[in-house]
Specification:
Blueprint: E1 17-23, E2 31-37, E3 41-47, E4 54-58, E5 66-74, E6 82-91, E7 102-108, E8 111-115, E9 123-126
InterPro entries: Self-incomp_S1
Family: Belongs to the plant self-incompatibility (S1) protein family.
Protein name: S-protein homolog 30
């Protein structure tokens, strides 16, 4: 009798999760963002209107809580007077990681929009703080 065993590490067969940040504010309006997790800080960056979206790709931290936040800022004449600290991804403590999750966040003049799936409309979920 022949027994074959295949062993994968926790993340080898798991497609990375994606957090996508889009700037849909207005021509000339810059979105400033600072994204960080419990294990990584990506620093402060800027995204031009309709530029290629910024994407964070990651695996869930097992068995710890995986959480990503992004502080989004914008304003007329790049004043950055409007902001929101958004919890853009959260997976509770677990033994089996979430795989291939999408969290899309879009900054628009009237608020912050969200979608969990590709090819679904973004819906406003937050209003800017001043």
């Amino acid at each position: 009798m022949l027994v074959t065993i295949t062993c994968f590490g926790l993340n080898q067969a798991c497609i990375k999760n994606h957090v996508v940040i889009l700037n849909l504010l207005a021509p000339g309006r810059i979105l400033e963002y600072h994204c960080y997790s419990n294990v990584d800080d990506l620093g402060v960056k800027r995204l031009d209107f309709n530029a290629t979206p910024f994407t964070i790709k990651f695996h869930d931290e097992i068995p710890n809580l995986t959480k990503w936040n992004c502080i989004l800022r914008q304003g007329p004449n790049n004043s950055m007077e409007y902001s929101y600290d958004v919890e853009v991804y959260k997976a509770g403590p677990r033994l089996i990681p979430r795989c291939g999750q999408l969290r899309a966040w879009a900054a628009r003049i009237d608020g912050i929009y969200f979608a969990r799936k590709y090819n679904t409309p973004l819906k406003r979920v937050l209003f800017w703080n001043k």
